[in-house]
Each structure stands twice: as C-alpha cells, then as structure tokens.
Amino acid sequence: MLGSQERDLVEYIQAHPDALPQVIASYFQVSDRTIRTYVHRANDALEGAAYIVKQRGGGYQVVVEDADRFAAFMQMDDGISKRSIPSTPEERVDYLLSDLLSRSSWITIDDLASILFVSRNAISNDLKRVEEKLGRFGLTLERRPHYGIRVAGPEMSRRLCLANLTLDQLLDSSSSNNRAMLDVVARCVNDAINAESFQINSAAYQNLVVHIAVAVARIKEGCLVPMEPEQLDQLRSSRCYEVAEKIATAVEHELAIDLPDEEIGYISIHLAGKRSLYETPSGDDTGLVISDEVWGVVSEMLEVVWSAYHFDLRNDLELRMNLARHIVPLSVRLKYSMSIENPLLSDIKKRFPLAYAMALDSSAVLSKHYGSTPSEDEMGYIALAFALAIERQKTEMPRKNILVVCASGQGSARLLEWRYRQEFGALVGTIQTCDVSHIDKVDFTSIDYVFTTVPIDRKLPVPVRQVEFFLGDSDVRTVRTILTDSASDALRRYFDPDLFVPHIQAMDKSEVIDVLCDQVHIHRQVPANFRALVDQRERAAQTSFGNMVAMPHPAEAVTDDTFVCVGLLDRPVEWNSQPVRAVFLISISKSKNKDLDSFYRGMVGLLTSQEAIQELVDHQDWETLLVLLQEYGSPTERE
Questions:
Q1: pTM
Q2: For residue 632, how many C-alpha atoms fall within 13 Å in the half-sphere facing its CB?
Q3: Distance from C-alpha of 523 to C-alpha of 518, rounded to nearest angstrom
Q4: Above 70 in pLDDT, residue 203?
Q5: Is the pLDDT at 239 greater than 70, yes or no?
Q6: Confidence class for position 279, pLDDT limits 50, 70, 90
Q7: 587 pLDDT band (50/70/90 cuts)?
Q8: Mapping DSSP to helix (H, G, I), strand (E, B) and coil, where does residue 481 land?
Q9: For residues 302 and 387, what is the distance between their CA atoms, to the nearest angstrom?
Q10: Residue 638's pLDDT is what?
C-alpha cells in the first residue's frame, strides 16, 4: 500500500516531470539517498499499475501502466492519516513537538527517523527548531546517552506549548472521540461564561477551549499541574475562580472526570489572561484591581515615551487607566507565556506607526517587570491605547508659529500681521513681525516658518518663503499648503545629503551603527553618549521590521532637531534575525514633537513599501531617495 511520503513523491514528479534528484531532495529537504528509498518503496507499492524511472542523464518520470489501478492506488488510504506522518520540515517540526510533549519516556533520534521515514540528519536539523520553540515556553530538550531525548520542564509549560500548536495538529481529525470532547468542553465553557456574564472575545474563547481540552487530555494521562497552597488561596478569592468552578463542574459531569482544585486554579489563570482592553463596550471590569505595582509600571512606560520621543503623555489620566486595565490580564499572560491574537495588528502598524513605535519602546518596562517580552499582538493592543491618546491631543490641527518679514516700518508690519491672521487664523498660533534689518535678533526657537516680502540674503534655521506684500490668490494657496503640512516634500526636511551613506561594507549591525553614528557626530551637534543611547535602545527592543529595513534610534530624545541618517548596504547584515540593507537612524528633537505623528506616518509609507526599498538599495544615490521622499512624504494624500 502506498504510504504518505511515497504518495507525495509520486504527485510531485507528476507535476514536475523529469525533475532532477537533487531538486526533489531539496524540495522535501531530505538526502538524495532518502529520495531513492522513497522511489523503491513507491515502485514496490505500485507494481503492475505504474513505476518511477530515472532517465539517463535526466530526472525522474512516472510511467503509468494501468490508469485505473494507478488512480485507485493514489486514492487509497493506507490506514494512517497523511497529516500524521509529515513530509515537509515544517510538518515534521510540529509532529515532533506534539510527540515529545505528549510522552514522558525517552526516545532515540534513530527511532524518530524510522517513524518519519527520513534520515537521522534530517531529524537532528528539525530538533534545532523544536528546541527553539520549546525555549519560548521555558522547556528544554534533555539528552541522555543510550536513552535518547525527552522534553524537560513544568507541566503547565507543556500544556501551553501543546495548546499553541494548531487545532488540526493538536487533535487527530480522524478521531470522533477527540472532536466530541472538544465540543463538550466548548459547551461547558459557553454555558458557564454566559451564566456568569463573564466577557471574553471570540478569539480568546477559542483559545480557552483548546487549553481546557489539553488539560483534560493530560489529566487522563495522570499529568497534573502542581500549585503552591498560597497561590491557590489567592486565586480562590478572585472572580475568575468562581467562573472556573462553574466550568469545572460542567466538565466533570459531562466527561466523568475529577478536576482537583489545582486544575480549577489553572482554568482561572487562563480566564484571567483571556481578557483584553478592547473587547466590548460592556466589558465587565468587576473585580479588576489595579495595584500600585501596575500603576508604577504604567508610569515607567510613559517616562520611556517621554525620554525617547519628548511626547508628554504623563498627565493623561485616561491613557493611564487604559494601559493599567490592559496590563492587569497582560501580566498574567506574560508570566505564564500565554498568547492572545490581535486581528487588528496589521492595520494598527499601518495607521498608527508612531503609537506602535511607542509601544515597542515602552515594552522594555514590561519585560523587566514580568520576565517576558510581549508579542507583536500584545504590542498592537498597547499601541491602540497610545493612538487614542495621541488622537485626543489632535482635536484641532496643530497651529504653526510664523515670522513675517517686511522691508521696514511698524505700520507695514501691523498690516501684514492683520492680513495673515485674517486669512490663516485657524492655522497659525503666534505671528511675529520684524523688518529685514532686525532679523538677526530674532529667536527662532518657537518659529516654524518665515514668510518674507523682501529677499533675505542669509540662511535661517527654519523654512523661508517669499510672497507678495498684498497676498494674491496664488500666495494664499501656497501659504495655506505650507501651514497644513500637506506638501509633497513634508518628509524631505528631515533628510540631509550629508547624512546619506551609500555602499556600506559591514559584517554586522554594530558596524553599521558605528558608521552612521560617526557620520552624525561629524555633521550634527549630538551628545558624547549618542552611540551608547542607540545601543541602549537596541538592547531594549528590536528595531528591524522586515522589508530589509531597520530603524535604530537613541533611547532618549537628545538633539535640537529631528533628523534621519540613511545607510545603505551592498550586502545584507543580520539584524534581530532579519536581513537588512537599508538603515534609517532617527533622532527625535527634544524640543518639538507636534509634527512627530505626520513624520512617522510618512516614514512608515516609505519603509513598508517593498518597491521603494528595493529601488533605493539598487540605486543607492541621493537623487533616488529624493524621488521616493517626494512620493511617500504625504501620507494623508495616499490614504
């Protein structure tokens, strides 16, 4: 009878006639010798119906002798689910995880290779990825000579890892008993949470059902979760424990199984971790206690945002409450390595890049307090809290402070001030006026733009636009465009050809950062510890976001203005396990932040475009960057 590997091989060769042995071996990620073994087994099973032949100097082909018998062979079930014996490395890794987590005895690598019909080397390579996944849950792969391997670690960690496998991998789809048990658990959970008016979202509900199903299966095998009496006493006083008791009672009745108090505590922990900040408007916060510890964590997070972005959200009480309410269940998930899905994640990254960057930076505080780094899904929920706070600060468009320069005369200056206030009153904050002879005495710290009716023969620290004394229609349109910040080159002002470094040759990200920081020190006034602050930020959270891009920046806002230093590499370097060829070293101004959101919105459009980044690293010249900045510098026009 044709096995799953042989069936897969025959189907592949039919779809790719004359496929070379090394190509087939690469596809299945096994050795040429293993492919030859598959061929021999397939020919034995298909005798009289078809056979695989290798052409001299060419590849394999399937020769069909009896079409009807061959079709019957290909449709015949060998009694083993195709899913149960995987053929690809990804499937093998999940199979090995499920197998090793479910057994307490030792098993040799040779035995696993025999079960999966692959070489010992293939299993050894797969086990490296298995160990990586186990490590995320505090589990290890224990090795012992002459005995083999087995998973070592707490029972709760085993269950969490098992439950994080997909449902199809976790439960044998051919087993009606398993499917029935899952249905029973779902009904028990549904009845209990409805009776108790306990609110959790649909994704969390499904995860909870899977976790409890895993727990029931492990209890039947005699594997219980140990729990300290003090911890259990603390859980008994919570609202979640009451709901867990209702679920446990129903499960015991339906499945004829005894759930000890420790297992009820285990369910209550999952209930506590399945809540999130953005569930339903009627979400029940009864019994949700915000401790001094959580309040302190929120304060530290907002201090990090202030230091890194000079964006002051420290006095936003609503933001503090939103973050605190979310961190209460989040702390449970981080402590026990539990996961939660965020269906809005991709939209949050795209629409609120500044808020997501704030969430990434402040997450270092959560890692420090709870011993685990939040996932991207968790970051997305935290970013939503920051996004709401930022939007509240933008109830009206930020007003620009302008300086109007005229030839001479106090009367002319007053007339100009009145004219600009009349035309652009909703867009401007303060309007200063001066004649051209006194421009050197002006403090430009709070000035955004200069509009002048006469030529100015010196360079000023802010953008300058010359207009007519009596503003015509064209001048009004120009000024309004500048003040609303919707010009196509809005992003361009943060870049400088002196801070553009193409064709960098570097072995790792540290060398890249060295090159860019050296360039910044030459052309900008930065503190001596600028490089150290960039390193501090790198240690706190990753700054590579895919698409061959990294965006490092100092852990604190330490420069007078916001600028970007661009580095382009001829060959990619590994940056937090991702290949990177375009590096944007960003320094945020310590004195201004009102345009920061539009800056990040423009940046995210550029950095997430595969076409734009590929064009940039292919050409590696300043003119190409200018064209891309003009195209991507107006996010509001593209949305």
A1: 0.48
A2: 22
A3: 9
A4: no
A5: yes
A6: very low
A7: very high
A8: helix
A9: 13
A10: 44
Sign of the C-alpha dihedral, residues 438, 442, 444, 448? negative
- For residue 546 the two structure tokens come to 């895919």
**Of residues 513, 517, 572, the one with CA closest to residue 547:** 572
End-to-end Cα spacing for the chain: 57
Give the whole-angstrom CA distance, residue 624 versus residue 517.
23
Report how far residue 32's alpha carbon sits from residue 22's, in angstroms, rounded to the nearest whole number: 6
H helices present in 29-136, as ranges: 32-45, 67-75, 89-102, 109-116, 120-135
Q: What is the mean pLDDT of residues 391-413?
A: 68
Distance CA 520, CA 544 (A): 20
Query: Do residues 100 and 151 touch, judged by C-beta distance below 8 A?
Result: yes
Residues 6+ apart with CB under 8 A from 512: 504, 506, 567, 569, 573, 580, 583
Q: What is the 3-state secondary structure (H, E, C) of 286-307?
A: CCCCCCHHHHHHHHHHHHHHHH
- The H-or-E segment that residue 405 falls in is strand 400-406
Task: Residue 255: count other Cβ atoms within 10 Å of its Cβ.
Answer: 17
Residue type at 577? S
What Rg, from alpha-carbon coordinates, does the chain have? 32
Q: Are 108 and 126 in contact (CB under 8 A)?
A: no
Question: What is the chain's mean pLDDT, rounded?
Answer: 80
Structural tokens at position 82: 């195709």
